[in-house]
Design goal:
The chain has about 220 residues and is of the alpha/beta class. The protein has three domains: about 5-70, Histidine-containing Protein, Chain: A (2-Layer Sandwich); about 75-145, Histidine-containing Protein, Chain: A (2-Layer Sandwich); about 150-215, Histidine-containing Protein, Chain: A. The chain contains six helices and eleven strands. The N and C termini lie close together (about 5 Å). About 25% of the residues are buried.
Length: about 220
């Protein structure tokens, strides 16, 4: 079992190894397997990448991301420029039903709204605008409309968990209430927890996932 110091050092090494992250400006602390990230980065995409890389480290039980985005002067854009760029990006992404997505930008914070049929369409919409210059944060308010029954959702998720070689599906319990999925049980790592959550989100009609999975010490 790793100590907090070992986990902290692994996270620091991983952030320093990633060329898309300026690790010198990021602070890392660890207590009881919970990583706290602080400091500043130059883009929203860099902030997200740091959080994702941290969550994949063995022994990490949770990530608290308090990194701030401070844009370089050359990357500053008006809200109108950001909104126009976002609309173009959504239009050109083949997985995004762009006519159903609305965009609002205020002080560099980009908000996405609208209704889609699948979770992957919601993810694709956010991916389409994630790397736009000038964006400081993204607020995703896109709704996934339910198209199947709770029993169908439950069966599809359980089958997906069983197909995943890296997961022990017997340790995961799936409950579905209308369009909300609740996951309970035990997994071996933070990465496995994320994999189980992704499997739940992949089912058509899922609008909310409550992940109560515990990462085994």
């Amino acid at each position: 079992m790793k100590t907090d110091l070992q986990i902290q050092e692994d996270v620091i090494d991983e952030l320093q190894y990633e060329p898309g992250i300026d690790a010198a400006e990021i602070g890392v602390t660890c207590k009881d397997g919970i990583i706290m990230l602080s400091g500043t980065v130059r883009s929203f995409a860099e902030k997200e990448l740091a959080g994702w890389k941290t969550g994949r480290i063995s022994g990490v039980r949770a990530v608290v991301d308090e990194i701030r985005v401070e844009l370089p002067h050359l990357h500053e854009r008006s809200d109108q420029d950001i909104a126009e760029a976002a609309l173009r990006s959504l239009l050109w992404h083949v997985q995004v039903p762009h006519t159903r997505i609305r965009v609002k930008v205020e002080k560099g914070i980009l908000t996405l709204e609208g209704d889609v049929d699948y979770r992957y369409q919601e993810i694709a919409a956010q991916d389409a605008v994630r790397n736009l210059t000038g964006v400081k944060a993204i607020v995703n308010l896109i709704n996934v409309k339910p198209t199947v029954t709770p029993l169908q959702i439950k069966a599809k998720i359980e089958n997906a968990l069983r197909r995943a070689a890296e997961l022990d599906a017997r340790q995961i319990k799936v409950d579905v209430r209308h369009d909300k999925v609740v996951l309970r049980g035990m997994v071996r790592s933070w990465a496995e927890r994320n994999e189980a959550e992704r499997a739940a989100w992949a089912a058509a009609g899922v609008r909310t996932v409550e992940d109560n999975l515990i990462v085994a010490a």
